[in-house]
Structures are given as C-alpha cells and as structure tokens.
Design a protein that fits this description.
The protein starts with 21 loop residues before the first helix and ends with a helix. It is globular and about 70 Å long. By secondary structure, the protein is an alpha/beta fold. The chain folds into 3 domains: 180 residues, 3-Layer(aba) Sandwich (Rossmann fold); 69 residues, no CATH class; 67 residues, Arc Repressor Mutant, subunit A (Orthogonal Bundle), CATH 1.10.10.10. A 5-stranded parallel sheet has the order 2-3-4-1-5, with helices on both faces. It has a two-stranded antiparallel ribbon with strand order 6-7. The model has no long low-confidence stretch (mean pLDDT 89). It has 16 helices and 7 strands.
Length: 347
C-alpha cells in the first residue's frame, strides 16, 4: 500500500507532518498550569495559513490530558455563553448531577424542570453558579475559540469572562484569529482587559528546521532542501505546499511544475482572499515594492513620488495583512513566499 502524503494544505486539518511551535506552546501551557492564575486569557494571531489552528489544537490536546481541566470548544458566531453552559451541563458528569439536583435551567432548555426550585433567569447567573461548582470541585475550565471574530456574542462573553475572573473563578480562554479580527475585538469599548491579555503572533517557522524536515521526509540533498526551505520564507502553508507537491512528484530537484502547483495553491487558498481585501492604494504601492527584494522607505517614496504621511496607512495595512515585514525600521520587504510573482500576474 502506498505511503500517504504527510503534508496537507487543507485548512483546519492537522497534517501528519508539521513543525510544532514548542516554545510558544510551552509558554502558554506553563501559564495555564500556574496556580497563581496570573494569566487567564490568551490570543493567537496571524494571517491565514500561519498555523494558528495547529498550534491551538496542540495546546488543547495537551491540556485535555490533565484530569483537572475541562476543555470546551466554541464558535464566535454562536451564542457563546449559552453554548458554554450547555456544554458544561452535557459533557461534565458532576455538573450534570449538580444542575439536575440543585439548578433549574429549564428556561434555557437545559436539564430537568425542578418544580421546587425557581428557574434561573439569566444565563450569566447560570454560568457563574456552574463555575462556582467547578471551583468547589478543584477543576478548571478552558474555553477555546478558533477563527474568532467580532460579534455581539463574543463581546458579551468577554465582558462576562472579565466579571467571572474578578471573582477568582477558574475560567480560562484561548482564542485564535486573523490580525484584523483580533484587533477589532481589542478596540471595542469596555474590553480593556482583553486588550491587555497576552497576545502571540504566529512568527515564521525556522528555515533551518524546515530544511532538516525536507531532508528527512523527502530524502532531499542538503542543498536542495536548503533551497526549498528558503523558498517557503518560513510561511507554514508554503512549507506544507512545497512538501506536498515535492512528495507527489517524487523528484529530488525542484521543478518548474512543482513551483507552479505551489503558486496555484497559494493563490487559491490564501492570496486571492488577501488581494481582494486590499485597497487600490495598497495594490498600487505593492506594484513598486515588488520591484526589489527589499528597499528603504525613502526609496519607495522617491519612486512613487509620495510623502511619508501618504504611505503610513498603506504600510500599516500591508504589515497587518502579513504581506510586508515591518520588523526593521525604514526597510520594506515582501514577507510572503512567491507573492511577488502573484502580484505580477495581477497586473
């Protein structure tokens, strides 16, 4: 039977072959396990294809192994607080017993109608009572939300979360989302707590580790593996795409056909969406930026005949989209692999 391709370019599916962000994962898990509970909310952010879901899943799986933790996955476009209460009731036996014996949640369609107990009028009150029971049982609850977006339910839940942790209830949260989505939530009124919560940006993968992975998994020479790793620019999706199509080809050298397949995957899965969301001025600046591997801001302003104040907003947007690298002051460089070629094909 043929060996299955270990690389995957389907979002939300965990590849058999991937590079774990061990340092980031260990840091968050250590903070979660800290008895002092200095941190109770964490944010993972980055552009599409940087490995947010894989990292979130790795954290979640490790936490699940600890019997003191209750892990609940929720969606940002659902009624988060109600769904959390429903999941705690249905998935946690001691809470099921607690509700059926002492808490009338019939108003929310949860549990049985206890005739001698007044129905709980507010879902927030219900969550608070459940969390008090969780604390009594010396357990902790971790809420995990992937692809987080600004919704009324998300904002309401974060406000309720803030109240519950002020009362020292053992509720924790990790959310993952695109730069602009996380920033939109952060900038909402009354969510200062969420703005201050620890935020982790999905940085590029190590080129050296990608090279060693390609050597071992694809059987490539040191030179070819190094060239292939450099072409990914550390972008997690590109690492998977180059691996997938090199595996399929069976070649030990990088062919034009493999590059064309990767370009197609990048376009269809990531770049078309990014491009469609850019403003005309952002695209116009990019047509100049791609002319060199890197350039200074003064060079860009000179060739575009524009001023600093005109460039500042497009620069901010292009950094937030993960297209250009803003880590070196005054230097502009394309951050995404094969994006130069993508832009050239749009003109």
């Amino acid at each position: 039977m043929a060996v299955k391709n270990p690389y995957v370019i389907t979002f939300g599916r965990i590849p058999r072959q991937y590079i774990s962000r061990d340092i980031l994962i260990d840091e968050i898990i250590e903070a979660l396990d800290n008895d002092e509970a200095g941190e109770q909310a964490f944010k993972l952010t980055g552009i599409r294809g940087t490995g947010k879901t894989v990292t979130l899943t790795a954290i979640e799986n490790e936490i699940r192994e600890d019997r003191n933790w209750i892990v609940i996955d929720l969606k940002s476009n659902s009624d988060i607080t109600s769904d959390l209460v429903a999941n705690l009731y249905s998935d946690v036996p001691f809470l099921t017993k607690f509700v059926d014996a002492d808490l009338n949640l019939s108003a929310f369609g949860i549990g049985i109608n206890i005739s001698n107990k007044s129905p709980v009028a507010s879902i927030d009150v219900a969550l608070k009572k459940l969390m008090q029971e969780v604390r009594k049982q010396k357990k902790k609850v971790l809420v995990v939300i992937d692809e987080a977006r600004k919704t009324d339910a998300m904002l309401d839940f974060i406000q309720e979360f803030q109240i519950l942790i002020r009362e020292e209830l053992p509720l924790y949260m990790i959310i993952a989302g695109l730069y602009e989505d996380i920033e939109s939530i952060e900038n909402s009124d009354g969510l200062t707590f969420f703005l201050r919560a620890s935020k982790y940006e999905m940085k590029p993968l190590s080129i050296r580790i990608i090279k060693e992975d390609y050597k071992k998994t694809l059987g490539l020479s040191d030179e070819v593996a190094a060239d292939l790793a450099e072409m990914t620019k550390g972008y997690a999706f590109a690492y998977q795409a180059f691996g997938k199509y090199m595996w399929q080809s069976g070649d030990k050298d990088i062919s034009d056909f493999v590059i064309a397949q990767v370009d197609e995957a990048l376009s269809e899965k990531v770049y078309n969406k990014i491009w469609s969301e850019l403003r005309p001025k952002d695209k116009w600046y990019l047509s100049f930026i791609i002319q060199k591997d890197k350039m200074t801001a003064s060079e860009l302003l000179e060739i575009t005949k524009t001023k600093h104040n005109e460039w500042s907003e497009p620069r901010k947007r292009l950094i937030e989209k993960g297209i250009i690298d803003g880590s070196k002051r005054g230097v502009i460089a394309i951050k995404l692999p094969r994006f130069k070629e993508y832009v050239e094909n749009q003109e």
